[in-house]
Amino acid sequence: MKRPTYGYFSLFPLLLMLIACGCSNQGKTQLQGEVTYGGQPVALGTITFTPKADGFRAIQTIKDGKFDISAKNGVQPGEYNVLVEGYEEVPEDDPDQVAKKAFPDYSTSITVEAGKPIVIDVPQQ
To answer: How confident is the model at residue 12 (pLDDT cuts 50, 70, 90)?
Structure first.
């Protein structure tokens, strides 16, 4: 008795399902916002979101006081510890110069909500 052949087309729905699951953002949201120090945009830095519970961690560069993390690389809505590191802008005429800290590392806690911009003002010390 000959076995029936289903061909490659019968695997197509399964392949689509696997691709859709693999491309899922798993409930993550885009993170956009601005970071200031004493009311002025942070020239250069990093911002790190670490969940207080289980979840994903995200880190992004701050440039001219702004950051943008895609939903693919974002975090799930919830409570996060946030670390901001700020540096002085490196002069264009000496790109090999190491950037100096603009302020001591700043930590705070925030609630991330889907679609809500994040604004952090690092207080002057």
So the answer is: very low
DSSP at 52: S
Tell me which residue has tokens 């696997």: 18
Beta strand 78-87 with 101-112 is antiparallel
Structure tokens at 120: 């952090």
Question: Domains along the chain?
Answer: 26-122 (2.60.40.1120)
Measure the N-to-C terminal CA separation of the chain; round to a whole number of Å: 83
Threshold 0.70, pTM exceeds: yes
Amino acid at 99: A
Cβ–Cβ under 8 Å, residues 112 and 51: no
Q: What is the rounded distance in angstroms from the CA atom of residue 77 to the CA atom of residue 87? A: 28
